[in-house]
Amino acid sequence: MKTLIKSFALLASLASAVTLFAQGSIYVCKKDGTYVEYAISDIDSVSMNKPESQEIQQPVEKTFFLYGDNVDYDGPLQYNWDEKVGPSGNGVLAYPKEMSNDPNVLHPVAIFCPGGGETPNSQPTIPKRLASMGFVVYSQPSTWSGDDAIKAFDWLDQMNNDPNARFYGKLNMERVAICGHSQGGVMAQDCASKDKRVAVLMLLNSGSFDAHSGSANLTIPTGIITGHTDMAYDNAVGDFNYPANKAPMWLGIKGNEGHGYGPWGGSNCCVAWIRWHLCGETKWEKEFLQNGGKFCNANGWETKIRNW
After folding, report:
1. Taking a C-beta distance cutoff of 8 angstroms, is the pair 112, 182 a contact?
2. Distance from the Cα of residue 24 to its chain's centroid
3. pLDDT digit string (tens) for the chain, length 308 residues
4. What residues have CB less than 8 Å from 9, skipping those under 6 apart?
5. Which residues pair with 287 in a beta bridge?
């Protein structure tokens, strides 16, 4: 008789639950008399039997399409150099001829901003080296505004999401890099302070003017290259020393090098910095932060770091 009564009670509870489904929620009464509420939109089914355990599929970790490990020279990949492209109509796009076909292996993305009066063709070393290692790199004549670089990132993002575009599903647009020379460095710095996609910044013979507050809003790893005879030396050092800086920063002063050093002789340093902070190649850490490393108080570098 007790079993029959329990059965009727169970049926009544289920009937009540069915009624509650129409109200958008179901309430389960626990043995201690408390209730647990479940939204109907979150419930797929109700069962009185314990379900068999199901294996939960873990998301597949996405990795970078990256080749070569010697930043002093171009990588092993052949690359395309498409001119008069991008939102400005006068930019250059450098990318490997053979793109990844694995949806879990994505190409790293970077923008290079040439110096004032320069073009992607007059300062091609960094874009070409990165492209030869697996990067997709866009470069266009610089302005003073980071908004123009943001438009370029948006343009690449559109191609990454367009089924008819060459880069559909092939780019990692969640974390991108930007670097710039002279005026292009100011443009890159402004972009990095506004665009949350930017994960790493490198300034080449560049820095903000006046109060040097351009670096104050940065939180990402920021590298700065200058030289003692660089006309932007005070800009670069002033940005590094700005008291309100909170970003982890590296300042590399390359002996008596002048204003043109960054995009040429300093290209290996820039590429290593980006590979470390964008692509997770931690082997470069000691080269920048430990005395005697490739870019740390050795090989003509006078190095300072802060916020590490």
Report:
1. no
2. 42
3. 444 444 444 445 544 444 444 457 777 787 777 877 777 766 777 777 776 666 656 666 889 999 999 999 999 999 999 999 999 899 999 999 999 999 999 999 999 999 999 999 999 999 999 999 999 999 999 999 999 999 999 999 999 999 999 999 999 999 999 999 999 999 999 999 999 999 999 999 999 887 777 888 899 999 999 999 999 999 999 999 999 999 999 999 999 999 999 999 999 999 999 999 999 999 999 999 999 999 999 999 999 999 99
4. none
5. none
Which amino acid, 80? N
